[in-house]
Amino acid sequence: MNFLLHIIATIAMGAPNILGFNMLFGRGKILHFGPLGVSIVAAYATFLVVMATGSYPLGIVCGLAATCSISAFFAWLSLRLDADGLGVMSIAMHLGLLAVVLNWSSLTRGALGIPRVPRLPFLDSTGDFALLGTCVAALWAWMLWQVDRGTFGRKLIALSEHEWHAKSLGIDRSRVHMLAFMIAGIGSLLGVLQYHQYLYLVHPSDFGFPAFIFFVTVVVAGGPGSVRGCVVSLILLSLLREGLRFVPMSPDVLGPLRLILFGAILFVAVWLRRDTLFPKQRTV
Amino acid sequence: MSILSLSHISLTIGEHRILSDVSCSVDQGEIVGLIGPNGSGKTTLFNVISGFLAPTHGTMHLQGSDITNISSSRRAQMGIGRVFQNFGIFREMTLEENVLVALEALPKADRMQRGNLRKIAGETLEMVGLASHAKQKAGSLSGGQMRLLEIARTLMSGKEVFLLDEPTAGVSPKMTQQVADLILQLQKQGKTVLVVEHDLPFISHVCDRVIVMDTGKVALTGKPEDVKKSKELRELYFGADPTT
pLDDT, tens digit, for every residue of A25-45? Predict the structure, then answer.
């Protein structure tokens, strides 16, 4: 039972971040590969303040401010760089931020991470996290579904199909990108706020490249832009990931095997969705 | 009264001079045809007016306001509508969403004044006979239907100046007549239209005035019947005056 609750909790806690990424990468066709860069900033800003002051409200306010700042920076990059340039730059930003938390040991404790993260009083057991995580994820998915089907979603699709055509209607690309990155950033913050309390730990390995590959795999396999597809894909791939723990193999083999498996799923998903995944270049 | 005026507009990209000292003005309610051989700078001039390309020199005014350094989306909100040469519709959206997205991009006051946008979108599709396809993806339409949808969407967005880039390209003669009727309907509402076309009979039918462009410059301007008779136009289109 506890393992089932653990799986529900981990899926639910990952959902806000992945759904935000789905909106940017899947729906907006913005080649932003730095969602975990945003998570790094959100997690460290929040929990460093919490650890230093013991105040969650203050930590959340600082985390929100830092998340909005880094999201605004990524949005600014998306407005100034071509799609491929943004892809490369966002990966570089992610790796740069990871390097900072790994090497600024006096502040972040480097590879040791931040241990003994306190939990909020109402979050005690795995069941509490599963319940809260599911409620937050359901609310967030419903909200993003509404956004996707509404005015903002249409503007995002219009910009992803043809920037000039969208602008000629009066759609302000800067405003739409800024808002989309902010929404995705808040999704990151919602995820890290729960996840690191659950683990009692903020660790750099949670923000590594394998985690990013998992994000991309979920979005691509679920159908880029589809909130429902993304949720179903997240559940199935999480079950697969957790299910692999029960394969009778040594961890030395199982770790790389899991990466290869997810790489293969990603390859097949990209291949099958190659016509809809990336923005089509049309000329005027 | 001049609604749009261009003053000494030049555009250089790299070492190529695409537009050279283009000056013209368009009056409110006027339909002006922009013609000229391929590569003469007609679409580029539309891109400059829409704000997608910044002129190297010169200024532009819309209803007396300087719009030279204003973004393309802001210009659209100020009243410049555009129909693109290669169908500016969004193929992944339904027909209804295609019209809705244009209405939702209007300034807030304008949106509030219009009320139910979904109803207006339905009326727009009704106007061009596409209401029965409202929930269909726009990518499944024929070229002519896409063109009608795009024009109807632009018309309903309440712009003051319309830039139509080859609106009859790839359209059947029957639909060409529909497009002409829509343009003339706009004029009755006091709107201003600039239209790029190669179809000279169409231009003669709908335009009050014609501007002929060649190598990025205004080569000739006048009433359609006068321009059609001019030796310069024949030379531009046929290389030499075919009557001689």
Answer: 999 999 999 999 999 999 999
